[in-house]
């Protein structure tokens, strides 16, 4: 695992909302702290209403975590493109985030309840 990345169970219960819809709520979120970046909350896939999330063709690569797949949020009134990402096959040392999704704060509200 990259020394500058810390993964831990996020304390408390988190909710994610976008486009007027609650996409998920969980007490099993992970907090990923990478260097000087703000912490990112990752939601387990089974805590999300995946019917609102459509896989997009967008991908990216992180040398520490691996290849990311992206998801757009489709609600009744709006399509929010590439709002979430997931590492389907993370690199060695990052396996804890497999099966989890994170959301861009500009595109979805992640809040501690």
TrEMBL record:
Ranges for domain DUF427: 16-105
Domain of life: Bacteria
Pfam families membership: NTP_transf_9 (PF04248)
Protein's name in the database: DUF427 domain-containing protein
Native species: Pacificibacter marinus
